[in-house]
Write a structure and sequence with these properties.
Elements (H helix, E strand, L loop, with lengths): L6 H11 L3 E5 L5 E4 L2 E4 L7 H9 L4 H10 L1 E7 L5 E9 L2 E8 L3 H10 L4 E3 L7 E4 L2 E4 L8 H11 L2 H10 L1
Antiparallel strand pairs: 1-2, 1-6, 2-3, 4-5, 5-6, 7-8, 8-9
Length: 171
């Protein structure tokens, strides 16, 4: 590998910097998304080969096969320290790329709710979580926007299978 960095090291830097996402695109400098803004790292651009090697650190053969067949693959993975991440690997305009972000858990959201003295938590797709603090809804702008998959995963953490069927039936 010509770049002397691993994906785990990039993720560690992202966590230290408070980033919600690491974005790697071949022939470009990796970026961290901090408060929704891309911040390039102070390093050389990663080659196509480097990007593929980083993908290989987290993707299995099936996910790499899906990438080749469909142009992208979405999956979750866990690092040694037990932190869960969501990843997307893709090929866009003939070049490989990947995006990794910390998977938000309901436990984490509830800890933040308690820390901030909020009375309730509001989550919905395509928005950052909201906390009701002293009667006012406060967007948690330091957190990533929730995808529909994030909201589904959060609901699965706190609902039964029967409740999820009812949610899916009633909209």
């Amino acid at each position: 590998m010509s770049a002397e960095i691993t994906l785990k090291q990039l993720i560690e830097v992202a966590i230290e910097e408070g980033a919600s996402e690491v974005q790697v695109n071949a022939n470009r400098v990796p970026e961290l998304f901090i408060h929704g803004n891309p911040e390039p790292l102070d390093m050389a651009p990663l080659s196509e080969e480097d990007t593929l090697e980083l993908m290989g650190e987290i993707a299995n053969e099936a996910q790499l096969g899906e990438l080749e067949a469909k142009g992208s693959s979405d999956f979750a993975f866990v690092l040694d320290d037990g932190i869960r991440f969501k990843a997307t690997i893709y090929r866009k305009r003939g070049h490989y790329g990947l995006s990794v972000r910390v998977a938000i858990t309901m436990k984490h959201l509830m800890e933040i709710t308690v820390e901030k003295g909020a009375s309730d938590l509001h989550i919905r797709a395509h928005a950052v979580p909201l906390l009701r603090i002293h009667g006012n809804l406060a967007p948690q702008s330091d957190m990533a926007m929730l995808s529909p998959e994030d909201v589904r995963d959060l609901l699965l953490e706190v609902t039964t299978e029967e409740q999820m069927k009812e949610i899916n039936t009633n909209g």
